[in-house]
Amino acid sequence: EKGGYDHFMLKEIYEQPKAIRDTLSPRVNNENEIRLDDISITKEELDRINRVYIIACGTAYHAGLLGKILIEKYVNVPVIADVASEFRYGNTFIDENTLMIVVSQSGETADTLAALRLAKEKGARVIAVTNVVGSTISREADDVFYTWAGPEIAVASTKAYTTQLVSLALIAMQMATIKGTITEEDYSGILNGLNKLSKQVKSLLEKEDLVKEAAKEIYNAEHIFYIGRGIDYDVAREGALKLKEISYIHCEAMPAGELKHGTIALIEEGTPVIAVATQEHLYEKMVSNIKEVKARGAYVIALAKEGNEDIEETADSVIYIPEVIDELTSVLNVIPLQLLAYYVAVMRGCDVDKPRNLAKSVTVE
Ligand code: F6R
């Protein structure tokens, strides 16, 4: 049932090229246009929407962070992304002019479901991005966008995350098209980028041995720090969550520029730092941050784009990701981060598919 893989997690990591194709192909027609039959929102409704909430937990929340960036940029409406258990008990500004997007692999997460019900009660429209057909969240939302990742068995979420990223990009593009807020150039740039992802993920999976080497360098660590800026910080958070939940090593993700405001005090000789440096306009800033931690003795594994080989002068080990627009880098960056988490956990003898204290579907609040 594990298809020759040692664990479901590894199998699901390797299923990502197909999962991404399956998310995309029903929604991109032969004329290379995005057509989402799943979402029936009209231009009139969209014009009324003055605030979007993206609500989720854990990995799904990390995917939601990309939705915020894309919707704010291309649909030109303010977006609040929050974890469901915080959102519910805070001050919420929800009315008929609010759109809520809930993201949940299982479609059963208690806090996310409660957020959906709260939004509906106040008259908001709710779009669910979920992987499970017929799940409670899918039944209660106004529109359901399935990620079509196939069943995810391992507790640590992998293919759900990458397909959630792709789904949120499609939803943002669709909304921007309906509203007329995206240029032809941006639209085709993103669509072409999406179409290339599946092959690019496949090419990254072939770098497994390189990631294994990196895992050997860090698997005995007590603390591991992840740094990035912008979208790279969001994927850093996902990488840190993945590693901590299955290896039990304390991992923390930090916005790279925030390090010097406290956390850098924890960097000692040999402390591993995973630096994600794939946002073109933030690259130089990231290189400076890597130098800062190197100067304190950190062992740095960097993720960088092909073409930025000069990073080898600063980082101890580099994993390159292929050419991709900045908005879609997370789909690629997360692949080595997932593999790194997996191999570190295996090297530590952990129960990868069933980490202690965790459940696949969290139906308690
Ligand atoms: C981490 C992980 C969890 C889930 C979270 C939300 O690998 O799997 O953080 O992402 O419990 O679950 P869903 O998406 O089912 O609502």
Present as ligands are: fructose -6-phosphate
| Biggest sheet statistics | 5 strands, parallel
Mean pLDDT: 96
- The largest sheet has its strands arranged as 2-1-3-4-5
Instruction: Say how many strands there are.
Output: 10
Sequence of secondary-structure elements: HHHEHEHEHEHEHHHEHEEHEEH
Low-pLDDT sequence parts: none
Q: Structural class of the secondary structure composition?
A: alpha/beta
Task: Please give a structural write-up.
This protein has 365 residues and is of the alpha/beta class. Helices cover 45% and strands 16% of the residues. It contains 13 helices and ten strands. The strands form two sheets. The protein has a five-stranded parallel β-sheet, sandwiched between helices. A five-stranded parallel β-sheet has the order 7-6-8-9-10, with helices on both faces. α11 (231-247) packs parallel to α13. The radius of gyration is 20 Å and the shape is globular. It starts with 7 loop residues before the first helix and ends in an 18-residue tail after the last helix. The mean pLDDT is 96. Fructose -6-phosphate (F6R) is lined by residues 57-60, 104-106, 109, 112, 156-157, 241, 245, 361-362.
